[in-house]
Amino acid sequence: MSLASSSTSLGDLGPRINIRTKVAEALRAALIAGELKPGSVYSAPALAERFGVSATPVREAMLDLVREGMVEVMPNTGFKVTEVSDHELDNLVELRLLIEVPTMGAVAEACQGRMVHEVKALQPLADRLRECAESGALIGYLRADTEFHVKFLSLGGNSKLVDVVRSLRSMSRLYGLERLAAEGRLASSSGEHDQMIQLALAQDKAGMMELVEHHIRHTRSLDQTGKI
Description:
Blueprint: H1 19-32, E1 41-42, H2 44-51, H3 55-67, E2 71-74, E3 78-81, H4 86-109, H5 114-120, H6 123-135, H7 138-154, H8 159-171, H9 177-183, H10 185-201, H11 205-226
Antiparallel strand pairs: 1-3, 2-3
């Protein structure tokens, strides 16, 4: 997949309110999707040209990613994408399972009163995920996916836990997403978000825990089968 793919367009990110933040979001998505290849070096001017912005916000955004461990500085050259091994990715999945499965189960069990409305408010995100998966808008998909899961987990009331999950997700890699979208497998996975909403509304704790575990493991298996 080429970085020049339309799926990495900054235009997918909406209004340019905070260019540095928007560029950082686009770069994170490109890294997670494998559009920026592990071990490869990219210059700020080249990325700036790609996004249609000046090099300054790109450099600033890349330095944010350096602090997150996603890239490293290569003096007088640019930024090198950090390589993540299959073993490390498997470890991230295990951590997510330990945190997200019981938390989402607890959210489902407690879904009543005001929380019912908060869960229903997640439906537009689930719809957007499905639309992005079907159209191959990968940056939009990844942004909506993160927002959906973070907001759902936030209903559990533990902001520190949500921060940990957000960090774990940023360290993940989902190689071959474009291929998976073309084959329809990404759309199939996106439908599980609708199921999570329905399980929460039904206060089905066991069903939610089972689905979330399947969803996380399924995402990892899509990554592995999506590699070229």
